[in-house]
Amino acid sequence: MNRLTRDFFMRDVLEVAPGLLGKTLVRKQENGIIKKYLITEVEAYKGEKDLACHASKGRTPRTEIMYHEGGHIYIYLIYGMYWMLNFVTAIKDTPQAVLIRGIEGYNGPGKLTRNLFIDKSFYGENLNSSGRLWVEKGLKQNEIKIKTTPRIGIDYAGEIYKNKLWRFVMG
DNA sequence: TCGACGATTGCC
DNA sequence: GCAATCGTCGAG
């Protein structure tokens, strides 16, 4: 079995996020067909101090899952139209998540979820046990070049956090 | 209850 | 450049 285990996601988000580049996102559709995509672009959102992180506003019904242990799926709707796919990281009570921004073939977090038919119903599912979405090994870490940049669309996050190089792109 | 706003996208 | 479109959250 190539599925990444709980331990992979139980680390700090700044380790997990770049570690997800080159890994394989696996989606099993309702008709049983399995599709696999290399992960090419991610962003890290780290804790209540990170003003770009939804958890900066504390524990709410929406952010609740980020306070659980790594490996859970955090999904939310943005601009009334697009579902954003995130993976919770680290141990319990440290709200962190990785936004999956791009996979091979689809660039853009909204287009990605639309094409893979991922929506609110995935909220709270666990990548260790889900029968329809998980992550597997992919490229070897030494085969990958990683570029870092500031995160997209978070100008409101204040000078410190909007400039953090927490977007990771493969290639 | 109400209003403001957003980790985006695609069209003008 | 800007509208689409609606769940979430804090204020009233």
Question: Can you tell me about this structure?
Answer:
Strand 1 (24-28) and strand 2 (34-46) form a beta hairpin. The chain contains 4 helices and 9 strands. The protein is α+β, with helices and mostly antiparallel strands and 171 residues long. The mean pLDDT is 97. The chain starts with 5 loop residues before the first helix and ends with a strand. The chain binds a DNA duplex (12 and 12 nucleotides) through strand 3, strand 4 and helix 3.
Q: What's a concise summary of this model?
A:
The chain is built from four helices and nine strands. It has helices at 6-9, 13-20, 109-116, 158-162, and strands at 24-28, 34-46, 73-78, 82-88, 96-103, 106-107, 133-136, 146-149, 167-170.
Secondary structure elements and pairings:
Blueprint: H1 6-9, H2 13-20, E1 24-28, E2 34-46, E3 73-78, E4 82-88, E5 96-103, E6 106-107, H3 109-116, E7 133-136, E8 146-149, H4 158-162, E9 167-170
Antiparallel strand pairs: 1-2, 1-7, 2-5, 2-9, 3-4, 4-5, 5-6, 8-9
The structure holds a DNA duplex (12 and 12 nucleotides).
